[in-house]
Design brief:
- Helix content is 25%, strand content 30%.
- With 145 residues, the chain is α/β, with parallel strands linked by helices.
- The strands form two sheets. Strands 2-1-3-4 form a four-stranded parallel sheet. A two-stranded antiparallel ribbon has the order 5-6.
- The protein is globular, with a radius of gyration of 15 Å.
- It starts with a strand and ends with a strand.
Length: 145
Amino acid sequence: MRILVFQHLDIEHPGIFRDFLDADGIPWDVVELDAGDPIPDLDWYTALVVMGGPMDVWEEDQHPWLVPEKRAIRAAVVDRQMPYLGLCLGHQLLGDALGGRVGKARAPEVGVMQVQLNSAGQADPLFAGISPTMECLQWHGAAVL
């Protein structure tokens, strides 16, 4: 197992996930796309984690690396059936890469807010042992529609 992480800003890194992966002996590599890092061959990886960032998925003119990133996300998820974890922008990129529509949310969500897992979330092994209702820090103005 080896995990590939797409990062969009030097301060929006995998955070505590780095400690979890290291403690479990799981190797991982970071590609910082905004810094010009090339996307490596996906054949070397078993899962893809895509972090957040301040940009929006439709800002391809300002952030041209979004175009190959979306292609790589689609290839990882559709062609290779790789497990995928998208955080904030990473979730929006997945929606866009798979043909969904991402746009401005009706209202921005900023601050610590209550989130409730739906039935699919409650059944997902990723959330095993976690309360279906939790407080989460949110800072976004876009949504997968």
